[in-house]
Amino acid sequence: MSKLHSSQRQHFQFSNIVGERTFGFVDLAELMAKATPARSGDRLAGVAAESAEERVIAQMTLADIPLSLFLEQALVPYEEDEITRLILDDHDKTAFSLISHLTVGGFRDWLLSDLATSDVLTQIRPGVTPEMAAAVSKIMRNQDLILVAKKCHVKTAFRNTIGLPGHLSTRLQPNHPTDDLTGIAASMLDGLLYANGDAVIGINPATDNVQQATRLIKMMDEVIQHYEIPTQSCVLTHVTNTIECIEQGAPVDLVFQSIGGTQATNDSFGFNLANLAEAQDAALSLNRGTVGNNVMYFETGQGSALSANANHGLDQQTCEARAYAVARKFNPLLVNTVVGFIGPEYLYDGKEITRAGLEDHFCGKLLGLPMGCDVCYTNHAEADQNDMDNLLTLLGVAGCTFVMGIPGSDDIMLNYQTTSFHDALYARKVLGLKPSPEFDLWLAKMEIFKNNEQFTLNHQLPDAFHKSLNRMIGGRS
């Protein structure tokens, strides 16, 4: 950016003089965007910094911004956006008072200090807005994001307890390109035998309608009830379909919805906050939880707002953080960022995917969400499974709530690469992370683990599954 003359400076709300050059930023949205670590989605949107130098200057400028400014200047107009209204109307001034004197840079230093204990971080959650979380993440190194996220403890429960320190849960994702029940059952058995599935057994239906969702819900419920598995099921259909499934008597555990950080994004997804409230009430009325009543499951992902032409000129990571305000409103059991799923248009390579995954996890945990991550990439991205191994390990260190478990790392229905059943077992072994307590006891009871403390699998097929497997392969021994 060229040097600005004095006549030009009046058009910029923020500026920073470095040597003989003055860098100017029109408003808080532009400053946030240009302070964001490099990624292809922001370049595509035309909001990224023009150089590494401008990015660093933007980060320096952002560090001096008072946190209170985010309560005074809405990045998306209050009158136009129900997410903005949610963020500002639900803001807890008492919780914020503990950090209200801080700048963005001061907030970073405080978060990294020993003063910011797990208990104190829990105390300030209602006072932190998504924009504050996004802003501080932009000036943090990867290790900073990991350290603070590790201190953020978020516990939820339905049929088991998710998010306890020292634990890592998994979503067993037995997708099938034709929703074939035998194929899905085979994947479920495979995943359970690798100790996967304590977060949820969740299916993305190939055919998305009420009839098919009900069929899959009933099938999973039968398996869970037959084997007395302390877990929950979910068909990842549209929220309005799930409401109809409940009205028709389907045994729904969790309600799913993909969410975005602006009202226009969610309009493109076909729902609003009132729909989510209706669905939550419907699921709670079933009273199917045994140890808790967190009944919602949300998925997010950087780039969704831009894909819907609904980003309001914001960078994709700030839009992503705003989606967490939606999630937080409904006390979910699970939230995960599907970090590399949209494609290289938004996160170009393994480095950008890794950074985004750590940012999303940090922001979600700081805001009080049970944050997991679908550690994934599409085949046209400049990434490979080694990149995913790195991110999986970093997230495990950071206290990630859950990851995906899919046969062979390859989702044959959604056509993307993610983490496999044995990848989750690797993370548990190398980092000493247990499944949820109730699920851990079930694994021992079913003789799936030979040694629960060392995560050693039983090399023999557990007796309880012999009959099921024989039925699945047509009665052959």
Biggest pleated sheet = 4 strands, parallel
Class inferred from helices and paired strands: alpha/beta
Rg, Å, rounded = 23 Å
What is the average of the pLDDT values? 95
Protein name: Ethanolamine ammonia-lyase large subunit
Subcellular location: Bacterial microcompartment
Binding site for adenosylcob(III)alamin: 205, 257, 307, 413
Cofactor: adenosylcob(III)alamin
Structure description:
This protein is α/β, with parallel strands linked by helices. Helices cover 46% and strands 12% of the residues. The model is unreliable at 1-9 (pLDDT under 50). α8 (104-112) crosses α10 and α19 (350-366) runs parallel beside α20 (385-397). The strands form six sheets. The chain has a four-stranded parallel sheet, with helices on one face.
Topology:
Blueprint (H helix, E strand, L loop, with lengths): L5 H4 L4 E5 L2 E5 L2 H7 L5 H6 L6 H12 L5 H4 L9 H8 L3 H4 L7 H9 L5 H7 L5 H8 L4 H10 L4 E2 L3 E2 L6 E4 L8 H13 L6 E4 L6 H18 L5 E3 L3 H9 L7 E4 L4 H7 L3 H14 L9 E5 L3 H4 L8 H14 L4 E5 L11 H17 L4 E4 L10 H13 L4 E4 L4 E2 L4 E2 L3 H11 L5 H9 L3 E3 L4 E2 L5 H10 L5
Parallel strand pairs: 5-6, 5-12, 6-7, 8-9, 9-10, 10-11
Antiparallel strand pairs: 1-2, 3-4, 13-14, 15-16
